[in-house]
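Service request form, structural biology core

Requester: graduate student, group of Dr. S.
Request type: structure prediction, single chain
Budget code: on file
Notes: please return the result as structure tokens.

Sequence provided:
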Amino acid sequence: MNRKGSTTSLPATADKLKQAGWELFRRFGWRKVTVEDISRQAGVSKVTFYKYYQNKQDLLQSLLKDELEWSRQRFRSIMESPLPFREKVQQMLVEKNKSSARFGEQLLQDLATGDPSIYQQLVEMSREFQQEILAAFAAEQQQGRIRPSLSMELLEYLMNRFQDMYRDPDLQRLYSDKATLIAELTEFLFYGISPPVRN
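Core staff response, request fulfilled:
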């Protein structure tokens, strides 16, 4: 989680706690990890931990905010790039997969099935970002790059489902590499089973 614009303004100790927490949470899930584990991994005492965070949930929420802000920055960078819209969508799918990989399966499972208050906070933090995505898609639609009758909510839903498909091991086995799978899913999103229209 050592990224520009996220933890660089924090003291070194707080940054080390974030690094340690992220590594342990993504490996073991947040429920099994204790404050003692995080402090030991960071090389600090529990007393020092509590100078920066109330508990491990407080640390997790801070990490989730960092990850969401990083995702928003990447999304804006992609949308502001000169790439064709189809390639922008492909890059978004790549970034979504990278984000899931950064979380790790155990942490994702804990977030979905663990403390409902933490999951709800994650949903609330994501809502504003989702609105930003829909607004960007609507702008592309007004420019004629998306079919006028297509619902933006449906497009966002499909992209999220494609992320689930991308992680499906049965589907992954059909392709030699993940980049090819993402490219094919993007082509399917834009053209269905019809051949692409080439200029």
